[in-house]
Design a protein that fits this description.
Length: 159
């Protein structure tokens, strides 16, 4: 094997290694984004089930102080039982916020006046809309469409 053949082999090997590392990085980030969307769906399902089991109105919102709902959906996701979204005294569950490098957008069409999701005692969702998760380093976005009748639907799509 000559020196030239060795250099060509090393060059091809390094190109393949770099390509593999980049592919793994995108795969990891994609799975992280998918995990955040699934965690959000899990919290939605928990709130819906809690409303059916207890027969009470259950709210799901984001909160930075655990005292009030954040209209921009920043902070921990909290699930609570109450007669009013302003009364966050009976907290059922607190889930950690999204990672800092993720973007969480809402379709204000369904959430114009509400910074929360409200499930009636029957499990029916009163307000509906779209939540989108994206990551700055990826061109992929996960959109969760929420209605009052069916389970949340995740639509991964390229932006």
């Amino acid at each position: 094997m000559s020196l030239l053949e060795l250099l060509i082999t090393l060059s091809i090997s390094s190109v393949l290694a770099v390509t593999g590392f980049m592919t793994y990085g995108f795969y990891y980030q994609n799975k992280e984004l998918e995990g955040a969307a699934q965690t959000f769906i899990s919290n939605i399902n928990y709130a819906k089930e809690a409303s059916i089991i207890t027969g009470k109105t259950i709210y799901l919102c984001a909160s930075t102080d655990h005292q009030s709902c954040n209209p921009m959906w920043h902070g921990d996701l909290i699930t609570f039982s109450s007669n009013s979204p302003q009364d966050i005294s009976n907290v059922l569950k607190i889930a950690p916020p999204l990672p800092a490098d993720m973007t969480f957008e809402i379709n204000l069409g369904g959430f114009t006046q509400n910074a929360y999701l409200r499930f009636m005692g029957s499990g029916e969702l009163v307000n509906a809309g779209n939540f989108s998760f994206s990551k700055d380093t990826l061109s992929k976005k996960f959109t969760i469409s929420i209605t009052g009748i069916i389970k949340p639907i995740v639509n991964p799509h390229k932006s």
